[in-house]
Design goal:
By secondary structure, the chain is mainly alpha-helical. The protein has eleven helices and no strands. It is a multi-pass membrane protein. This is Flagellar motor stator protein MotA.
Length: about 290
């Protein structure tokens, strides 16, 4: 929604200012310029990225038009779920969660949190490390190192579409210049035309530069920035899980372990201590 609103503001401001200054909107409607710029951009994108990066970018783009799911309510669910898991471990032992870990979709514990359960990547992250905790084959330092490596890998994967869009945005002004140069060439080969017609040809050529810059900084570049914000939120979610599980491994009680996880959250989504405490108590009663 915010992407669409932003695009409307960009177009409204640029085109509105042009019209108010006496410009004619018809002069900007140059489909052939768009064909040259857009076609060159798509071709360069395919050449630069190939299979996997291109698929990752196309998969990430639809998510940008949705609002962020990482809000206080989701973190409440996450911390409450981790509290319940760790409380069960503390009360009944690590082996008590073995069936939950092996079949999370069928687990009565995890099923209480459908928003978390629906994210298979997050559930894989949680269950994999709970499985390692159950096996007891690794200590807290080894698990922390493994978690850091996995989060770093996830972050690098998330940067692939960001880099692809950033480089595409950086190239758009150059493609605009290419379209403008082609227009100038066409103008120079038409020097026998009347001055009024030559002026129109030059105006058409300049539209190419205008479109390249507008598409770069008004449309493509902001998408890459939005992807960066989304990736940071995903990484923070995994860090919250990591800190909570490591606190438990280091001997802290479930209530303190989730407090460790709460403290690493961004202030805009972080529940207060009392809010989390009340939420955990209400969940225990269900």
């Amino acid at each position: 929604m915010f992407v669409i609103i932003g695009y409307i503001v960009v177009l409204g401001s640029v085109l509105g200012g042009f019209i108010l200054s006496g410009g004619h909107i018809a002069a900007l409607l140059q489909p052939l310029e768009l064909l040259m710029i857009g076609g060159a951009a798509v071709g360069a994108f395919v050449v630069a990225n190939g299979g996997k990066p291109m698929k990752a970018t196309l998969k990430a783009l639809p998510q940008l038009f949705k609002g962020s799911k990482y809000n206080k309510a989701l973190y409440m669910d996450l911390l409450s779920m981790l509290y319940e898991v760790l409380a069960k471990v503390r009360k009944e032992g690590l082996m008590s969660i073995e069936s939950d870990v092996e079949s999370p979709q069928e687990s009565p514990l995890f099923s209480k949190y459908p928003a978390i359960l629906a994210d298979h990547h997050v559930m894989d992250f949680i269950t994999d490390y709970l499985r390692l905790m159950v096996s007891g084959s690794l200590n807290a330092f080894e698990i922390e190192n493994l978690m850091d490596n996995e989060i770093e890998t996830h972050h690098h994967e998330g940067e692939v579409p960001i880099n692809a869009l950033t480089k595409l945005g950086d190239a758009m002004p150059a493609f605009g210049i290419v379209a403008a140069v082609m227009g100038v060439v066409h103008t120079m080969e038409s020097v026998g035309l009347p001055p009024s017609e030559l002026g129109m040809l030059i105006a058409h050529a300049l539209v190419g530069t205008f479109l390249g810059i507008l598409l770069a900084y008004g449309f493509v570049g902001p998408l890459a920035t939005r992807l960066e914000h989304s990736l940071a939120e995903q990484t923070k979610f995994l860090e919250c899980i990591k800190v909570t599980l490591l606190a438990s491994l280091n001997g802290y009680a479930p209530q303190m372990a989730v407090e460790f996880g709460r403290k690493v959250l961004y202030s805009t989504e972080r529940p207060s201590f009392s809010e989390l405490e009340e939420e955990v108590k209400s969940r225990k009663g269900k």
